[in-house]
Amino acid sequence: MRTLTILVLAVFLVACTSDAQKDRLTPEVIKLGVLPDQEQASLLVKYSPLVDYLSAQTGLKIELELSTDYAAMLDDFHAHRIHLANFGGLTFTEAERRDNAEPLVMRDTDLNFASCYLVRTQDTRETVREFGGEKFAFGPELSTSGHLMPRYFLQADGLDPEAFFASVQHTSGHDETAIRVRDGAVDIGVANCVIVTSMDTDGRLRPNEVRILETTPAYANYVWAIQENMDSSIKARLRDAFLTLDVLMPEHQKILLNLGANAYLPASRADFNEVRRAARMMQVAATPGLE
Questions:
Q1: 52-88: string of b/e by CB count within 10 Å (b at 16+)?
Q2: Structural domain count, the chain
């Protein structure tokens, strides 16, 4: 009887191992997705050197997959059209909720991220509170730095955006928010500080067109997250490639400069506890179409 029990147990364990291997994800091409928070030409310039580096460092075939908007990126991850994704904090928590997305790495700057309130340079007002009754722009509704966290902090300061401002718009990306402020389509907007700085550097914004009025308190934002059932050796190769990037190495400097980082660090689910809390309070996570 004991021999029969051991045999049955062995058959059961083999079957479970076979099922686990069947569910393990080992794609021939790793599809890398990024938030469409800028125009596509800017995203290609920003991420193409990273894709080339990761392919060379890991020996994996990696391709950049650009989604049309934030919700489409979540759908692409859900359908495994994207395997490794550079989510913002809010989109990561949605992918975690829907698909148990696993955090892999984040930039050294991502644990202390901030959003910037932008106004035209010639505007002499000094605080957000002085813009009551003016036209205001958030970024995309599912943007952590362009919507969720600025709204969260405004509410904490007793300012309901829809009641405080004359009008509230949502743009398609952080670069569009800056352009709307520059062109006078809105009086004040809030955007990702790193993207605004990059627009100053690459000439998309000329000197003395837009200035930073205030910044929000710090919060955790972007993270590279991977499909939970991705083969563990692929996860390790990708993680190690990110962690190997070193700003002191000349061949890594352009990659890191493009990404607004000095290095990458391991990421954990706990890093985004405040984002989850903000999403619940602001009810942003219940956006239609994300179920």
A1: ebbbebbebebeebbbebbbebbbbbbeeebbbbbbb
A2: 2
| Residue 289 domain flag | no
Task: Please give the DSSP secondary-structure letter assigned to residue 216.
Answer: P
Is 230 part of any domain? yes
Q: Is 237 buried (19+), middle (13-18) or exposed (0-12) by CB count in 10 A?
A: middle
> Which of 156, 182, 215 finishes a domain?
215
pLDDT of residue 3: 52
Task: Kindly state whether residues 205 and 123 are assigned to the same domain.
Answer: yes
Bridge partners of residue 134, in order along the sequence: none
By DSSP bridging, strand 135-138 and strand 115-120 are: unpaired
Q: Give pLDDT tens digits for 227-278.
A: 999 999 999 999 999 999 999 999 999 999 999 999 999 999 999 999 999 9
Q: What band does 289 get if pLDDT is binned at 50, 70 and 90?
A: very low
Shared-domain flag, residues 233 and 209: no
Residue 12, domain member (yes or no): no
- Which amino acid, one-letter code, is at 286? A
Is 161 inside any structural domain? yes
- Please identify which residue in the block is written with the tokens 């909720």: 97
The structure's pTM equals 0.83
For the stretch 276-285, contacts whose Cβ atoms lie closer than 8 Å and that sit 24 or more positions apart, written own/partner, are: 276/93, 278/148, 278/149, 278/152, 278/219, 279/90, 279/93, 279/148, 281/152, 281/155, 282/148, 282/151, 282/152, 282/155, 284/90, 284/141, 284/142, 284/147, 284/148, 284/151, 285/90, 285/93, 285/94, 285/97
Domain that holds residue 181: 114-215
For the chain, give the mean pLDDT. 90
Q: Which of 1-15, 62-76, 95-109 has the lowest mean pLDDT?
A: 1-15
